[in-house]
């Protein structure tokens, strides 16, 4: 059982690597990620290290817009629910504490916003 919180870049790397290993092997969301990331997993993981390092450790190593690469993915609420389920399980299996809770909250907010924006771009006439 996890007893320590997220405290440094090594913790971020452990979280990101463990999470995306599960994602790659997931029956629902794995194929979507694997198709998009062919030959680019190392680059994506590096970007995710910087993203979470910036959000959780306030060490500003990430710059960019996380949403645009996701805009045209063939996903819906079911996919975001699964992504969140895997993320929560991963955090809870590795860490406990304030930043672990912050990571789950940030992920949930991001999943909600990404799904909302994807639906908006997919169906602009329904607004």
Automatic annotation (TrEMBL):
Keywords tagged on the record: Heme, Iron, Metal-binding, Transport
Domain of life: Bacteria
Pfam families documented for this protein: Bac_globin (PF01152)
Matches recorded under CDD domains: TrHb3_P (cd08916)
InterPro entries: Globin-like_sf, Globin/Proto, Hemoglobin_trunc
Protein's recorded name: Preprotein translocase subunit TatC
